[in-house]
Design a protein that fits this description.
Number of domains: 1
Distance between the termini: 37 Å
Number of strands: 8
CATH superfamily: Aldolase class I
Radius of gyration: 18 Å
Number of helices: 11
């Protein structure tokens, strides 16, 4: 992102490793816990991350109220160091709601928004209506927009051809690809040479950097922040061998915790490393005792 994304970003390109942070819920009340949120963010950024995403898939965005999303952006902005990125997930089922969430995030200090496609009526969405959704949100947004491809949850894959159409919009500046498919990622990079292209899978971080992507927005970075940041730093420094070795440690954590267990697994891993994971919001279920024990052993190793 050459034009910058508001105050914190300045004129730096949007790049590096960001954590799509979990939403910490109070164990007694089930409300969002701002003290835990701020402490987690402070510690993750101190470990070397370039920023955070509030209200993404790992943040259980589909289970949050609009006001919770808005307040979380404000709470994180309060503790965000200079030159670190704050993105907010603002995709929604209606264009109207996505616009409202986007404007609220911008008002509370987000640098950019990450916008998933509508999912409920995905079977009835044509590429043209999907492009219109993104253009409408970007038109209304005071801050830059990144497209978010997460077919695992939306059951809708965003084609590279659609991205190519959107590259003409001055306020659409990037994409996060959580398909887990390196070929798809390469196609995105090819059709959007001027965008910030982020991989959403920690297992593919090294490969994404080889494809000249700009970084990763990685759930594994919620509990292995230093390791994820080190893969990126080693690669940027030209030490491919070291980056490759670090990636070999990162990949299994991503597959076993994020891939197998989702947000509940990420929260269990955060608990295991001394951050606050806490409960997931129903109808999501916590990980069972055996999985929790396994997660604890994995992150300890």
């Amino acid at each position: 992102m050459t034009g910058g994304a508001g105050g914190a970003g300045g004129d730096r390109p949007l790049a590096g490793v960001l954590a799509p942070i979990t939403t910490p819920f109070d164990r007694a009340t089930g409300e969002v816990a701002p003290v835990h949120l701020r402490q987690n963010v402070t510690r993750l950024l101190a470990a070397g991350l370039d920023g955070v995403v509030v209200a993404g898939s790992t943040g259980e965005s589909a289970l949050l109220d609009p006001d919770e999303q808005r307040r979380m952006v404000a709470w994180v902005r309060e503790v965000l160091p200079d030159r670190r990125w704050l993105l907010a997930g603002t995709g929604s089922e209606s264009t109207r709601q996505a616009v409202a969430l986007t404007r609220a995030a911008a008002a509370e200090g987000a640098d950019a928004v990450l916008v998933r496609p509508p999912a409920y009526y995905s079977a009835g969405l044509s590429p043209a209506t999907l492009a219109e959704y993104y253009r409408a949100v970007a038109d209304a947004s005071p801050i830059p927009l990144l497209v978010y491809n997460i077919p695992k949850y939306t059951h809708l894959a965003i084609a590279a051809g659609l991205l190519h159409q959107l590259t003409a919009h001055p306020n659409i500046v990037g994409v996060k690809d959580s398909s887990g498919d390196a070929k798809n990622l390469a196609a995105y990079r090819d059709v959007a040479p001027d965008w910030s292209v982020f991989v959403g899978s920690g297992s593919l971080l090294y490969q994404a950097l080889e494809l000249k992507c700009d970084g990763g927005i990685l759930a594994v970075a919620c509990f292995a922040a230093a390791l994820a940041a080190q893969v990126y730093a080693a690669f940027q420094a030209g030490d491919r061998a070291e980056a490759g070795k670090l990636q070999e440690r990162l990949g299994p954590l991503d597959k076993e915790v994020v891939g197998r267990l989702g947000p509940a697994g990420v929260k269990a891993a955060m608990d295991a490393v001394g951050l606050y994971g806490g409960p997931v919001r129903t109808p999501l279920a916590p990980v069972g005792a055996a999985d929790r024990e396994r997660v604890t052993k994995l992150v300890a190793a």
